[in-house]
UniProtKB/TrEMBL annotation:
Species classification: Bacteria, Bacillati, Actinomycetota, Actinomycetes, Micrococcales
InterPro entries in the cross-refs: DUF4229
Protein name: DUF4229 domain-containing protein
Origin species: Antiquaquibacter soli
Alphabetical UniProt keywords: Membrane, Transmembrane, Transmembrane helix
Transmembrane segments annotated in the record for this chain: 30-48
Amino acid sequence: MKPWVAYSLLRVGLFAAAFAVLMLLGIEWWLSAILAAVIGLCVSYIFFGRLRERVALDIAQRRDAPARDVDAEVEDVREG
């Protein structure tokens, strides 16, 4: 699984779990959403540092990779 997919799923899961707990406690939905977002951010920042670094490295590798130009490849095949 790509690191950004795992990181995204963990963040969404944290938000959903925190939101559900806050809603069960009877807190207004808008305040629950704000608090769940803050809780998810804090927990992911503290505990998922390695995964966040892997996401950053994956993004950097994608940016450093040469762009694939399909049109140029087709033209090269036709000329050769």
